[in-house]
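User: Can you predict the 3D structure of SET domain-containing protein? Sequence below.
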Amino acid sequence: MPTQAERKRAQTRVKPNVVARKSGKRKSSTFGAFTWEVLAFALLIAAASLGYHYFNQDKAAPEAATPAPAKGVTQEDFNAKVKEEAPRAPYTIPDTSAFTVIEIPGKGKGAIATRDIKQGELVLREGPLFTIPKAIKGNPTEPIMQKIIQLTGEEQEAFFNLSYVNFPEHLSPQAHVAQLALAIFQTNAVSTGPEEVGIFPSMARLNHGCSSAFNVVYMWRPEEQSLVVHALKDVKKGEELITTYTNTKKTRDQRRAFLQQHYGFHCTCAVCSLPDDLSKASDERLTTISSLYEKFAAWGREEIDGAEAVEIIRQIWRIEDEEGYTSERGSLSADAAWIAASHSE
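Assistant: Sure. Here are the predicted structure tokens for SET domain-containing protein:
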């Protein structure tokens, strides 16, 4: 009998578990032409540092040091070695005709529908710009910078134009490219399975909404090596496309605290902006849903029978309807089908 964990469908943004997370202001890292010249030079220095470590792996360098290349090691040699040993699939610019990216007051950049989009319609299919392992030993900036070095100029620009949090206020982004890259990666990385996380520049433009406020959902498809975004409900031309970054079956205070800590913003989505009395009622529904899911997990441990498990699914479905939380109907239906199949003769 499959366990609840085996059937769980996760769609949350994740970060590599390699550094402590700190609160910070979310920033846009849009660079001008002059800044790109500075950034290119900084990338050259960072690559040289990586090259030095590559050709001097038996020597330990201080963490804060930025060593010069070893004698006889050129930047071209290092880049060629990296590409030879770690070839990557080329990034294909996805079809983004369903939306346009613009500045939205109070949110930074966001995706606005360019036409009416029907419920269930494919909005975006995008392969990763690059991926890295979720668990990293040592300096977390090194695997990120190694990937960035392999990108084209246009791809590097797409990465460095993404927003970020947790970058020290007193540091210059242009002078600390590796730290900037880490901040951008942590803010925008999406799970690509149990082992890796990746960057999807177009998908990263989708802003967050809680509970019933989001209208698109995303999922990683390993067989296609791509992330797909579908409309959860009908979206009118001119509406913002909104997904969710976290488990929104939390109270408003809990959601806002998490989003402030990890993404650097105070959530003002349609659900978080409800009047206090309506927000309290929403919190109670979401808390009840979470409790019911905990009870439902007992079926995977064979602690409750199929009839009780199906009744719990019915209760979750009813309360989520009241909340307008429709994103889990597919997984609830699949769970009900699992139960029926497990108890069929």
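Residues 52 and 70 are 5 Å apart (CA to CA). The longest strand covers residues 99-104.
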